[in-house]
Structure formats: C-alpha cells, structure tokens
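so my prof wants the structure for this chain in the tokens format not the other one, which i didnt know existed until like an hour ago. anyway here's the sequence
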Amino acid sequence: MLNAKYIHSLSADELWYLNHESVENPLAVLHRFFSAYGLMTPHERLWELVKICLGSPGTEHWTSAQRAGAIQFVEQLQELIKANYVLFLSLERKGPPVS
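here's what i got, hopefully its the right format
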C-alpha cells in the first residue's frame, strides 16, 4: 500500500503510473538507475530513440510544431536526468539507500 501522505495528493492517473517503490523509496530507484547507467548512457539512448522516432514512417506527416514539441520534450527530459544525477551524486556521498 502506498503511504497515505502521498495518496491524497495524487490523481488516479498519476497513481496508475507509480509503483510502491517509486513512492516509498525513490532514492533506491535513483540509485539503481544511475548505478546501472551513469549519466551518459541515458542521454545516448534517448538520442537514439529520438532519431528512430523522427525518422520513422509514422512521423512523416508530423508538422514542424509537432517535431519541435518532441525535441523540446526530449530536452526537458535530459534536464531532468541531469538534475536527478546531481541528486544521486549528493546522496551517494551519504551512502547508498537500503533496498
């Protein structure tokens, strides 16, 4: 069960995407992700996905605004990855979280 202090602030749609560990131990999730991938791998994989997506037949009818929106989303996601990596590094100095 998710911690009650979080449940009341989340919509049903948000709860659908969250799992127990994401809510109860988000530091362990960060630790596992960045211990496995570091900083550069997520950026490289994300860029590969963008190239595949924008070069696929399904996007040939996208408007320039749709393409720009996709690129902007990826840029914001990259910033989120960077911010979480900095958080991960600061937490690692204190020791990895108990899983």
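also thought this was worth mentioning. The chain has a mean pLDDT of 85.
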